[in-house]
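The aim of this short unit is practical: by the end, you should be able to scan a pair of folded records and say something sensible about each. We start with the first protein, listed as its amino acid sequence and then its structure tokens.
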Amino acid sequence: MRKILFLMMSVFVLALNAQNSVYDFKVADLEENTVSMDAYKGKVLLIVNTATKCGFTPQYKELQEIYDKYHAQGFEVLDFPCNQFGEQAPGSNEEIHKFCTDNYETTFPQFSKIDVNGENESPLFTFLKAKQGFKGFTGERGQMMEQMMSRRDPDFAQKSDIKWNFTKFLVNKNGEVIARFEPTEDMAEVEAQVKAQL
């Protein structure tokens, strides 16, 4: 029995270690079709969990501006709506997409709504969080977010969980997760790091 358990654990560990890049994952598009992340091989990616009714929602405009500026050089913004934070991403995939295109004229890829924390979290986001944990809030609204999170969970800073909408992960051309930006991060800094990878 011990040998069987050991073998099962070994297979599980090997499976986890086999996932070394974002290209090892599959996600669902707006129509719930399966998309392999290896479709984005060789590109610089900014993977974002978003919401349509959040104080950070205007970042859609800045994300689109960065996308317009660098898309031709091999840059993609990958948008994953998530309703886990204040239920600020209500509506269907279609309604969310319409909101984004009508209000912010977004053209970057948008995927099906997902969970980024908890028992139903997307395996892609499990991987992203394992590669780049939470390092603290920065920027003008950082203190406000820190106070809000502390009230909800005094130990929030010790956990790699996504804290709020518009958390961003930067992935280089080799599929390696090289940076995490909290929603309070200055978008000029996000752009500078994207540019450095192109």
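Turning to the second protein, read its sequence before its tokens, just as you did above.
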Amino acid sequence: MKIYDITAEISSALPFYSENDPFKFDRVLRLENGDACNLSRVTMSVHTGTHADTPLHFIENGAACDEIPLEHFYGKAKLFRLCHKEPRNISKDDLLPLDIQADDIILLDTGQSCNMSKPLKKDYTALSTCAAKFLAEKKIKTVGLDYISADTYNAEGFPVHHILLGNGIAILEGLVLQNVPEGEYEISALPLKFKGGEGSPVRAILVARHG
């Protein structure tokens, strides 16, 4: 058994979608100061780093973190590598050759994982609306991407999120997939059980049972 950690390290080095989503880590108590223990406080958006989007993020009365079935974030996953030489939207044609079936969790590596420890790159690769509609027609459970958003930066109306989440498809964003071979794995990327939460950081791993 081999375990791949596909989670970006949470720190101020992450790309942040908005300046209104700062990350702050404070050590409130310190052993070195004579306190009884080390105790920290974290301030951040629930969409920081490697995270899950649930339907409530864009869909009124959509499922929240405490409501969405955990099968969206745990079970068999298929990792596909898409070779894009320059940033562009993932098209339906990119997805047609792939073995994508109903209820799949699919992870798309577009070579952007190295940017998950750098300042925001606004011309990142995202999904096209045609690709999102194709995934909705396939009735997958979850799609995972290797940068911070399924939509292009500041996309008007965030159509990809609306298509996916509106069809009950969960989204994993900010995955680190660069050193993981293509293939099938067991994934665990469980969101925290925020009551009414529209998203959550996750500790995402892939488990290869053989090899």
